[in-house]
UniProtKB/TrEMBL annotation:
PANTHER family: HTH-TYPE TRANSCRIPTIONAL REGULATOR BETI, HTH-TYPE TRANSCRIPTIONAL REGULATOR RUTR. It comes from Oxalicibacterium faecigallinarum. Residues 33-93 form the HTH tetR-type domain. Pfam families: CecR_C, TetR_N. It comes from the Bacteria. Residues 1-32 are annotated as: Disordered. This is Transcriptional regulator. Keywords: DNA-binding, Transcription, Transcription regulation.
Amino acid sequence: MAVMNAAKKTSPSLTPDDSVPEADQRRQRADGAEARQRLLHAALRLFAEKGFSKTSTRDIAQTAGVNVASIKYYFGDKDGLYRAAFAESMGPECNSWSEGHDVHALSLRDALMVFYKEFLAPLKQSETTQLGILLHFREVLEPTGMWQEEIDRQIKPSHAALVQLLLKHMQVEQEDDEIHRLAFSIAGLAMQVYINDDILRAIRPSLIARDDELERWTTQLTGYAEAMVLAAAAQRRKLASQSEQQQK
């Protein structure tokens, strides 16, 4: 017993630096990052194709080529993995399309151009982003709670920024249902490029075949939206004038 105690006292403590060479530590970190990324990509694809409820952690791990226990290690559980796939697939978060742009100093057309460029930008990005878009639409149809968070965190601020832009350029002091209806309609012009992806590819694939085609979408949608705003502003002026005439 005394010998064992002495051995315990004299044995040096093994820190991670002592037990594992630095090169091996770097390799382990790289392997860990790669395993996490494989899990994320496999989960993103399966969640987008099958939905949350129909995708098992076993299927994800098998597709990623890792042990199912890795999900718990990197993400906690299936919910945590879904949350990470949903949030990280679309790239850096932005609370509003107007962030980083002084849109209120721009003309109406230039501000709308910024709006559509930001809106359509994910369509130019990687397969991961494309799967992220699909997952976002699946979340709308099969909500898990993430969609409400997305509305609060990104969609509401973006809509509010667009409403403020319309108020400025239409010279309207107070927002109303007509202004909000117009804002949703402007966003809807771009949404159909996302939603009708399969239809566009079947009927006119050249419309979304290359990045420069998406630039043409941006330019045309900007023109359509500008015309909508000008028409709505003219209609408001006409109604206001008629109301004044009736009061005389």
